[in-house]
Amino acid sequence: xxxxxxxxxxxxxxxxxxxxxxxxxxxxxxxxxxxxxxxxxxxxxxxxxxxxxxxxxxxxxxxxxxxxxxxxxxxxxxxxxxxxxxxxxxxxxxxxxxxxxxxxxxxxxxxxxxxxxxxxxxxxxxxxxxxxxxxxxxxxxxxxxxxxxxxxxxxxxxxxxxxxxxxxxxxxxxxxxxxxxxxxxxxxxxxxxxxxxxxxxxxxxxxxxxxxxxxxxxxxxxxxxxxxxxxxxxxxxxxxxxxxxxxxxxxxxxxxxxxxxxxxxxxxxxxxxxxxxxxxxxxxxxxxxxxxxxxxxxxxxxxxxxxxxxxxxxxxxxxxxxxxxxxxxxxxxxxxxxxxxxxxxxxxxxxxxxx
Length: 355
What we know:
Elements lengths: L2 H26 L13 E7 L3 E7 L6 E2 L7 E6 L4 E7 L12 E7 L6 E2 L13 E2 L4 E8 L3 E8 L6 E2 L6 E8 L3 E7 L10 E5 L7 E2 L6 E7 L5 E6 L5 E8 L4 E6 L2 E8 L4 E7 L4 E7 L6 E2 L7 E6 L4 E6 L2 E6 L6 E3 L13 E3 L1
Antiparallel strand pairs: 1-2, 1-28, 2-3, 4-5, 5-6, 6-7, 8-9, 9-10, 10-11, 12-13, 13-14, 14-15, 16-17, 17-18, 18-19, 20-21, 21-22, 22-23, 24-25, 25-26, 26-27
């Protein structure tokens, strides 16, 4: 046999063997794409069909779906990059006590499947938004007379219910990132005022709790991203707004970025872009800038009163525009108002989120 042909056959056989071993390895250890840095371009929001329901729609206006349909109120939805949604769901009959709470945690997937009411081992504070990480763990503010106001967690499938804090602090306004952990507002033990707020953080397993701000500002609301930056609104007092405040890792450097924000809604993505409500002298608009304070830009300039912006890792911003949903890209292009047959308008006093 010709030597070149023999060599070619040998190489092909070796290649086939390597390929076979590779695919057998895949069977034993399948490669699952990670949700990070894979934006869904899906908006989850509270919609109104006579009461409050949870709806989703793609940023291009397609794929509208009402995920819940009942006679009770569903609100405060949050979604991770896997399309898992957690929200607060009222019970059919009110209770109003710690022993018989008015609301529970519910979960559903963005395709409408898996709608479940979770059995919470710890009663939730239903005035607070839950938070969900990309592994499907849900974090929420829990409360009863024994525990006080603490942070609890439960998995998307209803397992693993636990309390993460058991201390004399008061915690609220949660945000989470699977890599960077939890950020939240905390009121120090023994504080003379509930408005003596600081920002705290800890790991998602409840370890390494620490206070990261030590100032006289009134911080409220948090957003944490994968690089570990924490964003918050901060006021000098109840009447004087200081601006957007950021805490940078690893040394908790504190910076006030802007005094142009209004309202209580802003969003921080993993590309360190901030979308927030701003004021042009007449109306509420949507602005964007980098987390270092550069690149400040008005994305909208109109008279509709634009509010509640949320930005995903693709730089797509979803927001409320004159009681409708609108989207726009971070570079100012691609503006679109989402409406059409069957699409329900959002409830304007509730937040929305784009993933």
